[in-house]
Design brief:
Layout: E1 5-8, H1 12-23, E2 28-31, H2 36-41, E3 47-48, H3 50-58, H4 63-68, E4 70-72, E5 75-79, E6 82-86, H5 88-92, E7 96-98, H6 101-114, E8 118-120, E9 124-129, E10 136-141, E11 144-149, E12 152-155, E13 173-188, E14 198-201, E15 207-211, E16 217-223, H7 234-245, E17 258-272, E18 275-276, E19 279-281, E20 287-288, H8 296-317, H9 321-348, H10 356-371, H11 373-384
Parallel strand pairs: 1-2, 1-12, 2-8, 5-14, 12-19
Antiparallel strand pairs: 3-7, 4-7, 5-6, 9-10, 10-11, 13-16, 13-17, 14-15, 15-16, 17-20, 18-19
């Protein structure tokens, strides 16, 4: 097989890149080891920054997003028995939209297939070679071996993918931090009792009240990193959520059947550079953030917005400058998001439940956010996202 850009991974990054290339008349093939049903149903991030929403609309994918997405103009912080709403739109003129990652993926897949795009589901990328001059992705599909030859390879295949491993030892620098806790996340068939997200700092640990639709709530609890999900029956989950969230008089959460639950470890991870020879890496393949700042999917989309522009300049005008500067440009946003995600995480989670000094610092920080327009504006500006251009 032959194409111009071979894309490994059919998540938001890979699919969006393929769509952006199509709009510029550039051919691509997307390779995905999972089935279409799997990638369209896996629940991941749910918050789109303003820039991500603008990107979706600009490339013709905004109709369902604007109809079904839930626009939020603020978030609520709960701490020490108090509540403060960060009025993000008032402070920045921008907002976020709650629209699940799986919905973004559905929209992108539908658009690519409608345009005759090539997405090879249930096709494993075994290895990537010849990146200096004639990139080749070696595939396995239903017991059959296939070679995909291309001008460039875009590795959008996540932390465990093969793309990053194609770079020789010693080329990439890894920066990593592992946090001493995890998130227990649940999807509940319960109408949300909130119109905007609630971030709660509590002596028993962090909690987050989010939503996915008018009928589905998404909730999280800080737990130990080695927590066994079997130790958390529904009754215990709801009891702990009540303890950590129902700290404001007169407010209570809505309960209902829990339809999904999982434990996700928390970590920060960045690899530099994000390019080597004719391989360009994007999304979770090169950076992971704690989900506290809602940056993961948004960073991936920002990466490929840059990469799509760079490929368009190369194929359209023969320019190499944007491809050469891709890593440097992308990493500026990545490190800003890393800092914000670390800051939100350290402000809201109990890193050491036995350290009263740490708890006092967190309360002081939250009070400062609530009392300083400048500090609240900084939080809001980072949360709604920096402009993509």
């Amino acid at each position: 097989m032959r194409t111009q850009v071979g894309i490994v991974g059919a998540g938001p990054a890979g699919l969006m890149l393929s769509h952006l290339l199509h709009l510029q008349g550039i051919e691509s093939v997307v390779v995905e080891s999972r089935s279409r049903a799997y990638v369209e149903q896996r629940v991941r991030a749910g918050v789109l920054e303003q820039g991500s929403v603008d990107l979706m609309c600009r490339v013709g994918l905004g109709e369902r997003l604007q109809r079904e997405g839930m626009r939020h103009e603020g978030i609520e912080l709960r701490y020490d028995g108090q509540s403060y709403r960060v009025p993000m739109t008032e402070l920045t003129g921008r907002a976020i939209t709650v629209y699940g990652q799986q919905e973004v993926v559905k929209d992108l897949i539908a658009a690519r297939l409608a345009a005759g795009g090539s997405i090879l589901f249930e096709t494993e990328a075994v290895r990537v070679e010849n990146l200096d001059s004639a990139p080749t992705i070696y595939l396995r599909q239903g017991g059959r071996d296939i070679e995909l030859h291309c001008d460039f390879v875009a590795g959008c295949d996540g932390f465990h993918g093969v793309s990053r491993n194609a770079v020789p030892d010693g080329v990439l620098r890894t920066h990593e931090r592992t946090y001493p806790f995890a998130w227990l996340g649940v999807l509940a068939a319960a109408p949300p009792a909130v119109d905007e997200l609630i971030y709660a700092n509590h002596e028993r640990g962090f909690a987050l009240y989010s939503l996915r639709s008018p009928e589905i709530s998404r909730l999280y609890l800080q737990v130990a990193p080695d927590e066994d999900i079997a130790d958390w029956p529904d009754e215990r989950i709801w009891a702990e959520l009540r303890t950590r969230l129902e700290t404001v008089p007169g407010w209570s959460l809505n309960e209902g059947p829990i339809v999904e639950k999982s434990v996700t470890p928390m970590r920060s991870f960045v690899v530099e550079p994000m390019q080597w020879q004719r391989l360009y890496l994007a999304g979770d393949a090169v950076h992971i953030v704690p989900p506290t700042g809602a940056k993961g999917m948004n960073l991936a989309l920002a990466d490929v917005a840059l990469l799509g522009e760079a490929f368009a300049a190369w194929y359209g005008e023969g320019r190499t400058d944007l491809l050469e500067s891709y890593s440097t440009t992308a990493l500026r946003r990545v490190w800003r998001a890393q800092h914000f995600s670390w800051w939100m995480t350290s402000m809201l989670h109990r890193l050491d439940s036995d350290d009263p000094y740490e708890a006092k610092l967190q309360t002081a920080t939250l009070r400062y956010v609530a009392s300083s327009r400048a500090y609240a504006t900084s939080l809001a500006e980072n949360y709604v996202g920096l402009p993509l251009s």
